[in-house]
Design goal:
Layout lengths: L1 H10 L58 E4 L5 E7 L8 E6 L4 E9 L2 E9 L5 E7 L8 E6 L4 E9 L2 E9 L5 E7 L8 E6 L4 E9 L2 E9 L5 E7 L8 E6 L4 E9 L2 E9 L5 E7 L8 E6 L4 E9 L2 E9 L5 E7 L8 E6 L3 E9 L2 E9 L4 E7 L8 E6 L6 E5 L17 H8 L184 H13 L7
Antiparallel strand pairs: 1-28, 2-3, 3-4, 4-5, 6-7, 7-8, 8-9, 10-11, 11-12, 12-13, 14-15, 15-16, 16-17, 18-19, 19-20, 20-21, 22-23, 23-24, 24-25, 26-27, 27-28
Length: 637
């Protein structure tokens, strides 16, 4: 079917665009604009509007599915909250629960593959336990546990001693009247996790400074205007790098934020909405892909799951409803559930169970999809529980009859489908590798695409340079390949390890490898030009280019003795037995007779005898030297 569609599309191909820097599939559309860059798709049909063309979208119109509920425990009573993180240091996510009627904070060891051990109690002294969370509180690298308990107004923590062993309850406060929720993150910018609480009976959002080593400061109030506060969360909302606080309060239907002004100081309550009837839960993450944290709410009075777009700088757009079919909604969370890179939304509601809403991109969400319709769902969370790389779902059942913590396996999504069982998903084959999703050995070399180094090349990497032959400009030529990916083999590349695109002096050597990018006569390997420069970029000016004796001429300019400033092609030849003017002859300006004795010239100059100097009196030698120093070229040189 795929091949037929491709063939049909080929018939309608336009001429390739000359403006495209890259058009991998040759359909005339630049890769940057092509919604199916590796498969010919000129019409660009995209039925589900997810940005992938229909011809390469194996998920077109499909959704993620979840398995049936699997109980981790049903030994609780009014299990309120669930959370998961690695508690015993073995790399998988263990589960935590808070049980109201049993005053219990407990954990369940992840034994691997979605199997969980029995309930292990941290405490039964959290009177009316309502909330549980875990993060490193004492700076030793493992996750400690926090709890909020309603009847004793307590926020407490339990030190992780390692290997799943926890210390006794340690109280941060008993002044959180009707403690409802607890969370922790760095609020004062000192690098450790401070604690936040929401308390129902005093309408309070408060924080507790982490002083280090598991010691916490006194309760510090952020607001007492969150009427019947139910939920608290914190993340950077205004883009200034510190964590701002969010609250959901039931009786005033309010979702509000509190700006972190720095150093643990918070601004006044700023309302996002008062239209979340019976607001119960608040969470924040990037939902529309613009890089800032948008806000989610669950409200029980209007059965609503809604989001509020972050417009930047702490300004939020109006309430946008995902559903009003989450009957008695109590919890909201978001993470990527379908493997497409954006955050999908989860909800728990007392009358409708657990559901999810696919993020279709740009802040648009799909319809409610039920994971379980079991009543009394109270809390929802998601993370990878079975080690397969996708996010599984956790929930609590708050009923007094069958109170449980359950999980729902995230089954293979459409993006995980591998039609030809070659180890690559159809999505990967169509959008990353360009291989045939219906042929496990696209290049016919007897190696499955999923393990084939070069699944599109019969000969793979024949020269062993790490590049598949089809993409290797140095195929069969250079085992070092094309290091800088400039389509010039290293052994032919003037600058094999750097960008070749800049050559200011147009000397054919890239600036990155040119010791003088502004001079076209200077580059590695250039011929020396006798100009006093290091033309060949050897690191120094050649000896023959230097003028060591300061006579204005170098060896390469004809100076036959660069150690004597009186010897050069410009010097006057003198009767001294030396080739002063570098013409290759000694005293060539002085006439001689057939006996070899230098005679006076027509100007009467008296020169040295070419034979033994003892034939001349000392006074005559001295006079001769004096006279020759005064001669010009018209005389004896």
């Amino acid at each position: 079917m795929l091949r037929a569609a491709v063939a049909a599309t080929l018939l309608a191909l336009p001429a390739a665009s000359l403006a495209c820097p890259e058009d991998t599939d040759g359909d005339g559309l630049c890769d940057a604009l092509d919604n199916c860059a590796l498969v010919v798709n000129a019409p660009q049909a995209d039925t589900d509007g997810d940005g992938l063309g229909d011809i390469c979208d194996v998920c077109d119109g499909q959704t993620t599915s979840f398995g049936a509920d699997q109980d981790i425990t049903n030994e609780g009573n009014y299990l309120q909250t669930v959370y998961a993180t690695d508690l015993d240091g073995d790399g998988d996510a263990d589960v935590l629960s808070a049980s109201d009627s049993h005053d219990r904070i407990a954990w369940y060891e992840n034994l691997g593959g979605g199997v969980f051990g029995p309930q292990q109690t941290l405490t039964t002294a959290a009177d009316g336990a309502t909330s549980v969370y875990a993060t490193d509180l004492d700076g030793d690298g493992d996750a400690d546990v926090l709890s909020a308990s309603y009847h004793d107004d307590r926020i407490a923590w339990y030190e992780n001693l390692g290997g799943g062993v926890f210390g006794p309850q340690q109280t941060l406060t008993t002044a959180a009247d009707g403690a409802q929720a607890v969370y922790a993150t760095d609020l004062d910018g000192d690098g450790d996790a401070d604690v936040l609480s929401a308390s129902n009976l005093d309408d309070r959002i408060a924080w507790y400074e982490n002083l280090g080593g598991g010691v916490f400061g006194a309760q510090q109030t952020i607001t007492t205007a969150a009427d019947r506060a139910r939920s608290v969360y914190a993340t950077d909302l205004d883009g200034d790098g510190d964590a701002d606080v969010l609250s959901a309060s039931h009786d005033d239907d309010r979702i509000a934020r509190y700006e972190n002004l720095g150093g643990g100081v918070f601004g006044a309550q700023q309302t996002l909405t008062t239209a979340a009837a019976g607001a119960w839960s608040v969470y924040a993450t990037d939902l529309d892909g613009d890089g800032d944290a948008d806000v989610l709410s669950a409200s029980s009075g209007d059965d609503r799951i809604a989001w509020y777009e972050n417009l930047g700088g702490g300004v939020f757009g109006p309430q946008q409803t995902l559903t009003t079919a989450a009957d008695a909604a109590t919890s909201v969370y978001a993470t990527d559930l379908d493997g497409d890179g954006d955050a999908d939304v989860l909800s728990a509601s007392l009358m409708e169970g657990v559901a999810w809403y696919e993020n279709l991109g740009g802040g648009v969400f799909g319809a409610q999809q039920t994971i379980t319709a079991a009543d009394n769902a109270y809390s929802v969370y998601a993370t990878d529980l079975d080690g397969d790389g996708d996010a599984d779902v956790l929930s609590t059942d708050v009923s007094g009859v069958r109170s449980s913590v359950a999980w729902y396996e995230n089954l293979a999504t459409c993006s995980d489908i591998d039609s030809d069982a070659d180890g690559l998903s159809d999505h990967q084959e169509l959008n990353t590798f360009g291989t045939d999703p219906n042929n496990g050995d696209t290049d016919g070399d007897g190696v499955l695409d999923g393990v084939d180094v070069c699944p599109l090349d019969l000969l793979d990497d024949s020269d062993g340079d790490g590049s598949c032959d089809s993409d290797d400009p140095c195929f069969g030529d250079d085992a070092t390949g094309d290091t800088d990916d400039d389509d010039v083999c290293d052994n032919l590349d003037a600058c094999p390890g750097a960008d070749d695109s800049f050559d200011a002096d147009l000397d054919t050597v890239p600036d990155a490898c040119d010791c003088d990018p502004a001079n076209p006569d200077v580059y590695p390997g250039a011929p020396e030009l006798c100009d006093g420069l290091d033309n060949a970029c050897a690191g120094s000016v050649p000896d023959e280019d230097a003028d060591s004796d300061g006579d204005g001429l170098s060896i390469c300019e004809g100076d036959c003795d660069d150690t004597d400033g009186e010897i050069s092609p410009d010097a006057l030849e003198q009767c001294n037995g030396v080739d002063d003017n570098c013409d290759g002859e000694l005293d060539d300006a002085c006439p001689t007779d057939d006996t070899g004795v230098v005679k006076d010239d027509s100007n009467g100059c008296s020169c040295n005898v070419s034979g033994s100097p003892t034939a001349w009196p000392a006074w005559l030698l001295a006079m001769t030297l004096l006279v020759r120093r005064r001669r010009t070229r018209s005389g004896c040189n």
